[in-house]
Design a protein that fits this description.
The complex is a heterodimer. Chain A is built from eleven helices and seven strands. By secondary structure, chain A is α/β, with parallel strands linked by helices. Chain A has a domain of 184 residues: 2-enoyl-CoA Hydratase, Chain A, domain 1 (Alpha-Beta Complex), CATH 3.90.226. Chain A has a seven-stranded mixed sheet with strand order 1-2-3-4-5-6-7, with helices on both faces. Chain B is built from eleven helices and nine strands. In chain B, strand 2 and strand 3 form a beta hairpin. In chain B, helix 2 runs parallel beside helix 4. The chains are: A alpha/beta, B alpha/beta.
Chain lengths: 295, 232
């Protein structure tokens, strides 16, 4: 039976992503490690500060896992939330798991503790890259209703692999922020189709920012994650130069495009208007058909 | 401070740093050592091109001048807020810059950040905040969001935020708040060159910011929570 990833809580996602009954939470709600700042502002806090972390097995292999709870402050990163993620990546250095898996759902820095959140995002980034440099693969799974934005959008693209569902969104600034800064003509945040094709999973998959596109189903995310276990992309001059070349080429090829439809058309997608209706598996075929990555 | 007097204060005439649009780059000499300077000016909005241009300088330095220290000069209004940048995946371009800086550190380049004018949100994360250590001038401005905007978003009265910000460094703009939280290692006053030399000699390579934040009382929990997760 299909279990929607988007409609599940962070804990349910973790429980059903990992092997049955294998999850062991670290600093769970019983420990009551809460934000010291929210209470001061008169804002309700959460006993896990909006992120579930722990260990478990995936297809029998030991992994560390984190899942952000979008229902709590949009998954925003505060001091404690960020420190739990940093701790998880540092723990990985000690335990050498087959992967660190992050179920990212976040608007980025939690504004109520903005300064701590901003610093924490950079600390997570450094800890994540440290784990990667030690050969531990980091896998991002993005499929929550709140998307993956701001600082978490940066962190996601520091990982080895990104898996998204077509309703998942990955970007830097939210459409509302862009609209309020530069007007509705720049980015109409109420135009759902525009928002989706600019930040959504299918666009990210077609331009190569997402490695695997899956249906909104926890089991599909699980299969994708299993397929990526043990696959580490080294952090060296050669891989960074390759990334640089890819991003330079993307600017050259698509820098003048004004809409995702233009990019898809130029990339050789036969009928861009039909992309919205395709299943994830059909998207895979669309891309497999092409010998060269679009970007 | 303007970038030109800043470079004079840091290196005297011994620099070949030039401006190309909002990008600053070039080598400089300090105490007999050559360093690579890269950064932005004019409160630059960091778009895909500017992130990529900075990454290019860092990668060239790592490839052609192993071990040469890198000084990141920060003056940014944050990431560019345009539909086109999002379409092209600006988060990946910015993350790439951060990863290049991380690579340089791993290849024994000392990386020092200096906020000399303003540093806002996303534009700061993958530059100064990913250095070995980041410093700031006292007159610099660091913030995620101004209090009136924050009041709107969080629906907390602005007067109350202003009052709370006097005793809690966690949300209000200001370089001192970032020092208290460990994100800025120190403020530079007086002889900037002497402080750059000291920073190049003394900045820690492991990330000590959570520990600094705890010692300074600005972030009481981060280091402790991280330690508990590691040892659990």
């Amino acid at each position: 039976m299909n279990r929607s990833f988007a409609e599940s809580t962070a804990r349910a996602r973790v429980a059903h992503l990992l092997d049955a009954d294998s999850f062991q939470e670290i600093l769970g709600p019983a420990e009551r490690v809460v934000s010291p700042h929210l209470a001061l502002l008169g804002v309700p806090s959460s006993f896990d500060d909006g992120v579930v972390i722990g260990s478990g097995t995936l297809a029998g292999q030991a992994v560390l896992i984190a899942a952000q709870e979008g229902e709590f402050m949009g998954g925003g990163v505060g001091e404690v939330h960020g420190a739990k993620l940093v701790g998880l990546f540092k723990r990985a250095l000690r335990l050498q798991p087959a992967a660190v898996i992050v179920l990212a759902e976040s608007g980025g820095v939690r504004l109520h503790e903005a300064n701590a959140g901003l610093i924490a995002v950079s600390e997570v980034m450094r800890a994540l890259l440290d784990a990667r440099a030690h050969g531990i693969p980091v896998i991002m799974l993005i499929g929550g209703d709140n998307g993956c934005f701001g600082g978490m959008g940066l962190i996601a693209r520091c990982a080895d692999h990104v898996v998204m569902s077509d309703i998942g969104r990955l970007a830097m600034s939210g459409p509302e922020v862009i609209e309020s800064s530069n007007g509705v003509e720049e980015f109409d945040s109420r135009d759902r189709a525009l928002v989706w094709r600019t930040t959504g999973g299918k666009h990210r998959f077609l331009i190569g920012d997402c490695d695997v596109l899956v249906e909104d189903d926890v089991a599909a995310f699980r299969s994708a994650a299993i397929g990526l276990l043990g696959q580490s992309i080294p952090l060296n001059l050669a891989t960074m130069e390759a990334e640089h070349a890819l991003l330079s080429d993307r600017l050259t090829q698509y820098g003048d495009c004004r809409d995702a439809l233009d990019i898809w058309r130029r990339a050789g997608v036969p009928d861009p208007a039909l992309v919205a209706d395709l299943e994830a598996s059909e998207m895979q075929a669309l891309k497999t058909r092409k010998p060269k990555e679009l970007a | 401070m303007n970038w030109e007097p800043l470079l004079l204060a840091l290196f005297g005439a011994a620099h070949r740093v030039t401006r190309d649009g909002d990008l600053l780059s070039g080598t400089a000499e300090v105490k007999g050592r050559t360093v690579m300077v890269v950064g932005t000016t004019n409160h630059a909005a960091i778009g895909v091109e500017l992130a990529l241009a900075q990454a290019r300088v860092v990668l060239d330095t790592a490839r052609e001048h192993p071990g040469r220290p890198i000084v990141l000069l920060v003056d940014t209004q944050g990431q560019r807020l345009r539909h086109r940048d999002e379409l092209l995946g600006i988060n990946r371009y910015m993350a790439h810059l951060g990863c290049c800086i991380e690579l340089a550190r791993r290849q024994q380049h000392r990386v020092i950040g200096l906020v000399y004018d303003q540093a806002l949100s996303g534009g700061f994360i993958t530059s100064g905040l990913i250095a070995d250590a980041c410093y700031a001038l006292p007159e610099a401005e660091i913030r995620v969001m101004r209090l009136p905007a924050m009041a709107r978003v969080t629906k907390i009265d602005e007067a109350r935020l202003t009052e709370l910000s006097k005793s809690n460094p966690v949300f209000a703009p200001g370089v001192e708040n970032f020092v208290a939280m460990g994100g800025i290692r120190a403020l530079w006053t007086g002889d900037l060159q002497a402080q750059l030399i000291a920073a190049l000699d003394e900045s820690p390579t492991p990330d000590q910011r959570a520990a600094d934040g705890a010692a300074r009382g600005g972030r009481q929990l981060a280091a402790q929570v991280t330690a508990r997760v590691i040892s659990a």
